[in-house]
Amino acid sequence: MTSMSPVDRTVERVAERLAVPIRRARAISNPPEVSPAPQPEHAAYDVKLAHMAARILYRSGIDSLGNPLLVLSAAAFPDANEVDYNQLLPYVLAILPGENEIDELDSHGEKGSGGERQSRLHAREG
């Protein structure tokens, strides 16, 4: 058995100490996939979780450019000891605008690019 030099031992100790934070960082930067919430007509759909999600994140009209406004209510989050947040998350995410809705807003120029909606607003002002 060969003995390690002081530098090799130091490198090994540093590598051991960094292993756990590196694994944690990788887990954060590569979160697991979240399955979408079941559709309301599906047997696995949980009405209680859907109602909780609707109180946590909800739409509250549109802004002057036609973009949906979302309200996130921290006070509406249930006690983590009573609800599994991993089961609740898909229901909350389902409330967010989908890619199709965002693409539709972009294609109509309603994100401030001078599209039809802005033209109509300026026409009323003039």
From TrEMBL:
<feature type="compositionally biased region" description="Basic and acidic residues">
    <location>
        <begin position="105"/>
        <end position="126"/>
    </location>
</feature>
<dbReference type="InterPro" id="IPR036865">
    <property type="entry name" value="CRAL-TRIO_dom_sf"/>
</dbReference>
<feature type="region of interest" description="Disordered">
    <location>
        <begin position="103"/>
        <end position="126"/>
    </location>
</feature>
<protein>
    <submittedName>
        <fullName>Uncharacterized protein</fullName>
    </submittedName>
</protein>
